[in-house]
Amino acid sequence: MEGGALALPHFRSRVGIGSPILLSADPGAARRSSGASGRSRVSRVNPGAYPRSAGRGRTWKRDSPEAPPRRSGITRVPNRSPEMPTERAGRTKVSNVNLEVSHHRAVAAVRLLRIEKGKAFVDLLNEKGNSSGENEMSYVERTLGFSIRCLDNRDIRLVTVIVAGTVRWKRYLDYLIMSLCSEEKVFREMEPLLLQILRIGFFEILKLNVPAYAAVDENVRLAKVALRPGAGNLVNAILRKLLLLKEANSLPLPKIEGDDRAQARALSIIYSHPVWMVRRWIRFLGKEEALKLMKWNNSDPHFSIRVNTANGYTRADLIDRLESLQVHYEKSTMDEFVRIQEGMQNYLNLFHVQTVLQAGLLKEGMCAVQDESAGKFPCLSDSGTSHLSKHLILMLRHEESIVGLVVSVVDPQPGETIIDCCAAPGGKTLFMAARLSGQGKIWALDINKGRLRILMEAAKLHNLDAMISDIHADLRLYAKETTATFDKVLLDAPCSGLGVLSKRADLRWNRQFEDLEELMCLQDELLDSASMLVKPGGILVYSTCSIDPEENEHRIAAFVQRHPDFVLQSVHGYVPAEFVTDEGFYSSSPTKHSIDGAFAARLVRSVL
């Protein structure tokens, strides 16, 4: 697995995946028989109340916005109507398409539910017509009880904007929603789907500046159709109250006052970050820098395109194509990269992304989409790319790789043997292979066999497969069993991903303070193992996409104490001077350099 924001799937079991969330999604659930009369009526249930969980005898309660997020799951789905037979019965499925609701909002609400359950990522949806897109529509139908029409490209872009923004601003939105509910109990016992609809409405009004009538009317209609009329009435009342407060510039936000802990809590709400992150950044960076960092994390991220020189293309070739496609760009300080302007979640920029992909630039092997510092491959759809390209982009969404400037720290030279110790899904491996100019060899080692397969398919697409061999293994076991050594060893270590929160909208909520200690132990183990693969006189590069000193400088200091045969070598001369620290490390800072945060150290093994 490529280093970066680590979910630790291979090193520990995840707790809480199966925790239940109750979902009342049957649009007819509010109607009940009135007895012998046979008449139906609308339930007089309080629109803010939450239905009892069958067989449990208690009401599910939601945490406060100040509490750590809890994992949730779906305990039931709405009953299918008689005219909607299942596929398992071998009959043709008849879709109950609802044309009344806003389709992109319906998809966004369901996707937000799945993200909270831990079954989805904050990705751009795939184009209609492929299996992933069909699965998404299936989730909508099973959750809401009706299907929607296929989304066009504009709808897909809107879903991406709404989902990423709503997740990013979740703590801020939840605080305001709770403040505007008639009672705190209404918020704490609010059913998950209703909460997602309110979050969408609040985000559209406060951050997207969607016209008031559209934000209110469309979300009210969605709540009424997907839940019940009373839910729509509640959404209407709360959203209209929000509009009045916004117009009066009197949103009920907390004041930044009191002791350090109280100020951190207030800032965590205003800037929508976990309290522990805010306190940690104030401690290491100071309050002013911490505020700048949180603003960066909440801003629209950019991304870069790297030209594939191995296929004979130059940056000038790529720029010519971008200009012919009328895609706005700017040149990077690195020769292989071009930046796409605007934010990745920005409407205009999403149009540019789709244009680049649909023009077939990835399919041709002309370029790769990634970040200069942290090798980000955004999850994008591409109706014009190959089957491989779609799945490659999807897989690259889940992990970060240190490519760009960090590969410059490795400084691959023709004829060298290099091992990439946490290689999949392959951004840095491909970039290093391209730097070898057809001479040398790279071994890509990873614990995930499926991701290694995608890496090798990508290498073939980029005409680099002859230079790359894959090794499916746990680095810690492989280092003990092999006698092989290499000229250069790159360990792009699993880390917290605190340097890439602008691109990973959901990552801030999936990180706990306790994760850091576990990650640091893992990083030490992997460093020790990677060091065994370095030839005498060879180079070991350790990198992360974190800005936390305990994952970076502190790990190197501890490693050198354990391994006196390794000496730190300055990265000066390998990267621009602005990225070189006083200690000789590579470090990129979002607030100083306007790119993702990353770290790298270059160590030389003594000959004796």
From TrEMBL:
This is SAM-dependent MTase RsmB/NOP-type domain-containing protein. It is found in: Cytoplasm. Residues 326-606 form the SAM-dependent MTase RsmB/NOP-type domain. Its main location: cytoplasm. GO terms for biological process: regulation of DNA-templated transcription; RNA methylation; rRNA processing. Residues 60-69 have a biased composition (Basic and acidic residues). GO terms for molecular function: RNA binding; RNA methyltransferase activity. The keyword Zinc-finger does not apply. It comes from the Eukaryota.
